[in-house]
């Protein structure tokens, strides 16, 4: 069989013994992909690209970085000033981290809108949430490494979250620090773990893809492919379509890296860490702000921490909260309204997380937090029961043909 | 495609909406004046004359209290000095070296590879000499403050008489650009502090602008090359985006 | 579409053939490859010596205190540099041999600026070990110069390879006399 598939004799020789080319060929041509995916389906590939960019630039940065409290800040400055192209590599790493989160957030909201978490893709979705959690841990530890003021105080505040745990909390925090404050042992272990975690993420991504290929991609209509007329091969159709997304992604990333490299960072991180003085207004990186807002919305220490983790945990059980058999929001008029309310709610939480915890901001944070949980725990289960959905099309090719004719 | 554009714009808008306020927060009721900076914008560049004058202002006005610890004399090549001039500038400074064969540290004339020495040996000495206030190192100051260049420029020109409602304690000064308005640094620039080597007439504004220019370079010495590569990269990727979209249309056209 | 030479109808159904001969499709993938190659360069170039490393490439040494027959070792670019104040006998022995017979032919006078002061990079040209022979009492090899313990290379009083696996003489670094007492290496 392989003898017919490949004309190159070297490829044929290798493939006979190590069928990597057959596997690639299978993914490219035999794996059926719904023909109606829109550009929101680019974001999975883009997230993978972002992970690769982060790992490659990160390995290179690690060659020039020194994980010691006395040298970390100046080693980063050396990267920025003396190492060949060091400034470029570091700015790519900084900004691609933000872009990674942008891409993943869009990827998550796409899943929410089109019901990609529903049966039989529950594990696919849950693995995605695991990746998201690992990303947050990795990003948090990476932000500590330059050992600026925000690094230090971010590390202090976030590790102190664990002190909220009754009885053993203080011991856990001391354990995490390897001392009695955030110090050199903390920096060393964060560097080690920051280097390790991306590879763990890559491993879970492989599982994520295995789970994806079991049933294939969901699609904007949310009904399963009924046969070959509903699907096309990944290559060349989606490779070229992904190329458009990649070009867009890289273009926006280039604009950020070359013209606004510090726009998504915080100026205080260009001040070396000072354990004696906290900056006037500390905020986490922008991608943590919604969760930070939930943390601060609760007046109780333990309660805030629990609620923050619960905000992610609800995503784990989402496939069992939303029991509606219809996946896509296109056919769920009421769900669609609530989806956009949730979207606005999350943006609002992000905005509020960046504001000082005082006055009207606290009240608004509480409202937004309540709405977030209301959406998942009350509204979605209720909609599953009471919503009247629109009739579903018979197959994927039916509406696709209809629009094609309409457009022509 | 339209949806994709909407998605991208939404993402960016969300980002600015979230990151923007986080950036600007903590400003209070300060007033910032904007300078006209040659380094602003995608084609921005550093003005060598302004940087050389700014370096002179730094040496004669700021260097008594503030260091630039990440700058080496060799970096001054970016300001347009040649090797001999850099050697001569370095030789005016003394740095500690050692230990020598007897185990003693000793002072010697600085060389181009040396970092520019800071005025104080450590933070404690700096505090002891400044009423307990710590003059920050200036090598990253324009990146360590929001709107760095405008902030620094405004701060240097922001000294004025305190309004009647504000009591200014001893050793503090009133500055309209400083958060909280009470700053421990006395007014550094009056306009006639420096006589420029190139004969450029001096005003408070020109001194403040030149030293800001110098410190902007000090914080981000690779800005020029960054923007130069950036223009090329954005151009290349724009073409790539257009071509890949056309290629996508071509490939998908065969489906129907 | 811009493309005018349309394909045979049968190829359009086979995904393996779609777009293969379309200029715009091929050019797009080619452009992607060019872009990836351009990005590879900074990632590789960062391993070359950084600007601060390059700037530190010279060392000044006071050689006036080295007694005749003694040697000191200083650091230059992270490597040991041997400076030996040679005796008249050592200089004579270095000049006694016909350099044409050597593995790496070189006159002694081509290796020194002042005959009594020999400056060498103290790294064996075989595989980079530091030869013995600097301290009094250390093995100096059969030719009374230096001896590399790793693989048994013998160097003479001019630092030239005489016996053993090393292919070339010990390297003489670039140096200048700033005064009679001080040299600058590099």
Describe this structure as you would to a colleague:
The complex is a heterotrimer of chains A (408), B (256) and C (186). Chain A has 17 helices and two strands. In chain A, helix 12 crosses helix 15 (333-353) and helix 12 crosses helix 16. Chain A has helices at residues 2-5, 9-17, 20-30, 43-62, 72-81, 86-114, 122-144, 149-160, 169-177, 184-215, 234-259, 289-297, 301-316, 318-321, 333-353, 360-386, 397-407, and strands spanning 32-34, 231-233. Chain A has a two-stranded antiparallel sheet with strand order 1-2. Chain B is mainly α. Chain B has a single domain, classed as Cytochrome Bc1 Complex, Chain D, domain 2. Chain B is 43% helix and 5% strand. In chain B, helix 2 crosses helix 6 (204-219) and helix 5 (148-157) runs antiparallel to helix 6. The radius of gyration of chain B is 24 Å and the shape is globular. In chain B, 34% of the residues are buried. In chain C, strand 6 (153-156) and strand 7 form a beta hairpin. The radius of gyration of chain C is 29 Å and the shape is elongated. Chain C starts with 8 loop residues before the first helix and ends with a strand. The relative contact order of chain C is 0.14. Chains in contact: A-B, A-C, B-C. At the A-C interface, helix 4, helix 6 and helix 11 of A face helix 2 and helix 3 of C.
List keywords for this structure.
heterotrimer, A: 408 residues, mainly alpha, Cytochrome Bc1 Complex, Chain C, two-stranded antiparallel ribbon, 67% helix, globular, disordered C terminus, B: 256 residues, Cytochrome Bc1 Complex, Chain D, domain 2, two-stranded antiparallel sheet, 7 helices, 43% helix
Q: What's the short story on this structure?
A:
The complex is a heterotrimer of chains A (408), B (256) and C (186). Chain A is mainly α and 408 residues long.
Pair of chains with the largest interface and how many residues each contributes:
A-B, 57 and 51 residues
Number of helices, counting only DSSP H or I runs of 4 residues or more of chain A: 17
Based on helices, strands and strand pairing, what is the structural class of chain C? Answer: alpha+beta
The major pleated sheet of chain C works out as: 3 strands, antiparallel
């Amino acid at each position: 069989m392989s003898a017919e598939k490949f004309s190159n004799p070297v490829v044929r020789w290798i493939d006979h013994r190590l069928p990597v080319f057959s596997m690639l060929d299978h993914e490219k041509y035999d794996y059926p992909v719904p023909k109606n995916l829109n550009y929101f389906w680019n974001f999975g590939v883009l997230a993978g690209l972002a992970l690769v960019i982060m790992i490659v630039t990160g390995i290179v940065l690690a060659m020039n970085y020194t994980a010691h409290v006395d040298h970390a800040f100046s080693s980063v400055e050396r990267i920025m000033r003396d190492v060949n192209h060091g400034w470029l590599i570091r700015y790519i790493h900084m900004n691609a981290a933000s872009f990674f989160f942008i891409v993943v957030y869009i990827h998550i909201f796409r899943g929410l809108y089109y019901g990609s978490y529903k049966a039989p893709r529950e594990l696919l979705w849950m693995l995605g949430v695991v990746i998201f959690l690992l990303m947050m841990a990795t990003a948090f530890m990476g932000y500590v490494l330059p050992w600026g003021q925000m690094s230090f105080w971010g590390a202090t505040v976030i590790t102190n979250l664990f002190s909220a745990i009754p009885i053993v909390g203080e011991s856990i925090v001391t354990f995490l620090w390897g001392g009695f404050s955030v110090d050199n042992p903390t920096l060393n272990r964060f560097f080690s773990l920051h280097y390790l975690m991306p590879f763990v993420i890559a491993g879970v991504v492989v599982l994520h893809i295995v789970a994806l290929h079991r049933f294939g991609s969901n699609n904007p209509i949310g009904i399963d492919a009924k046969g070959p007329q509903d699907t096309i091969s990944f290559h060349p159709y989606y490779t070229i379509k992904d190329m458009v997304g990649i070009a867009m992604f890289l273009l926006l990333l280039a604009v950020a890296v070359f013209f606004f490299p510090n726009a998504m960072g915080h100026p205080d991180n260009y001040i070396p860490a000072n354990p004696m003085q906290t900056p006037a207004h500390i905020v986490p990186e922008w991608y943590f702000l919604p969760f930070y807002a939930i943390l601060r919305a609760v007046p109780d220490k333990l309660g805030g921490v629990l609620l923050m983790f619960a905000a992610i945990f609800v995503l784990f059980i989402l496939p069992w909260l939303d029991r509606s058999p219809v996946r896509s929001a296109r056919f769920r008029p009421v769900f669609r309204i609530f989806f956009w309310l949730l979207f606005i709610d999350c943006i609002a939480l992000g905005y509020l997380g960046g504001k000082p915890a005082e006055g009207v901001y606290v009240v608004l944070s509480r409202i937004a937090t309540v709405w977030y949980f209301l959406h998942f725990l009350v509204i979605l289960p209720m909609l599953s029961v009471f919503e009247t959905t629109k009739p579903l099309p018979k197959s994927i090719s039916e509406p696709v043909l209809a629009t094609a004719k309409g457009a022509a | 495609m339209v949806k994709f554009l909407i998605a991208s714009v939404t993402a960016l808008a969300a980002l600015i909406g979230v990151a923007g306020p986080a950036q600007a927060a903590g400003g209070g009721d300060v007033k910032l004046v904007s300078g006209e900076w040659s380094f602003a914008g995608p084609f921005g560049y550093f003005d060598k004359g302004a940087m050389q004058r700014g370096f002179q202002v730094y040496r004669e006005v700021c260097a008594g209290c503030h260091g630039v610890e990440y700058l080496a004399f060799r970096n001054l090549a970016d300001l347009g000095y040649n090797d001999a001039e850099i050697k001569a500038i370095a030789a005016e400074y003394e740095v500690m070296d050692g230990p020598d064969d007897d185990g003693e540290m000793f002072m010697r004339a600085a060389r181009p590879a040396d970092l520019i020495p800071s005025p104080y040996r450590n933070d404690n000495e700096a505090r002891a000499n400044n009423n307990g206030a710590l003059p920050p190192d200036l090598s990253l100051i324009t990146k360590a403050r929001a709107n760095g260049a405008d902030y620094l420029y405004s701060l240097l020109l922001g000294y004025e008489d305190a309004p009647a409602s504000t009591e200014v304690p001893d050793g503090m000064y009133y500055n309209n650009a400083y958060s909280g308005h009470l700053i421990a640094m006395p007014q550094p620039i009056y306009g006639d502090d420096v006589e420029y080597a190139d004969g450029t007439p001096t005003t408070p504004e020109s001194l403040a602008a030149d030293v800001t220019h110098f410190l902007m370079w000090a914080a981000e010495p690779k800005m020029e090359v960054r923007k130069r590569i950036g223009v090329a990269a954005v151009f290349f990727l724009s073409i790539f985006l257009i071509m890949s979209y056309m290629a996508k249309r071509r490939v998908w056209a065969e489906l129907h | 579409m811009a493309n005018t030479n349309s394909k045979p109808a049968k190829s359009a159904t086979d995904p393996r053939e779609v777009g293969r001969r379309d200029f715009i499709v091929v050019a797009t993938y080619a452009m992607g490859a060019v872009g990836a190659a351009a990005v590879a360069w900074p990632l590789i170039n960062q391993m070359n010596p950084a600007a601060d490393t390059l700037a530190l490439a010279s060392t000044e040494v006071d050689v006036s205190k080295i007694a005749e027959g003694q040697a000191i070792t200083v650091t230059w670019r992270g490597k040991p540099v041997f400076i030996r104040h040679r005796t008249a006998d050592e200089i004579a022995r270095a000049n006694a041999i016909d350099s044409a017979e050597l593995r790496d032919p070189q006159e002694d006078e081509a290796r020194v600026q002042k005959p009594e002061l020999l400056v060498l990079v103290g790294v064996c040209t075989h595989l980079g070990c530091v030869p013995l022979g600097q301290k009094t009492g250390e093995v100096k090899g059969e030719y009374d110069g230096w001896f590399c313990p790793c693989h048994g290379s013998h160097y003479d009083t001019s630092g030239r390879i005489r016996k053993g696996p090393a292919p070339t003489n010990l390297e003489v670094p670039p140096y200048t006399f700033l005064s009679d007492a001080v040299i600058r290496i590099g």
